[in-house]
Amino acid sequence: MEQRFMRPVGVLCILVSLPALEAGVLAAQAFFHLGDIWRAAISSAASIGAILLFASGGLLCAQLENALRVVYAGAMVSIVACGVGALIHLVGGHGILYGVADPVAILLLLRATPPADRLNTDERNHCDGNRKDGVAPLTLRMA
Prior knowledge:
By secondary structure, the chain is mainly alpha-helical. It has helices at about 5-35, 35-60, 65-85, 95-110, 115-130. The mean pLDDT is about 85.
């Protein structure tokens, strides 16, 4: 991943994870006190996904390459836990937004940012006027 995209995506991960973390911890605590272990486990899993997204945001801001693995893990845990929670009517609209839609958006954003080696070769080819397919770029000349 290109270094200049890591910090904005990291800040996005942190901002997305905070509401999900708060809601997941409060729900897990309430269900645990009620003795509903199944719902407490799902809320705890959603909290773990939010913690991983929060940690990956910090790793991305520090521009560490292994942060992408943590982003994918946190997003997958969050999507699965909140998806199951939505199926059993544990998670409402905000939970679906913060636990499913936002991690999906982060994953799509990570997929849309080109890798660093592809950016460098495209910029080099554009600046040099050479292309890999052997076709010279079209230039307009004013007479």
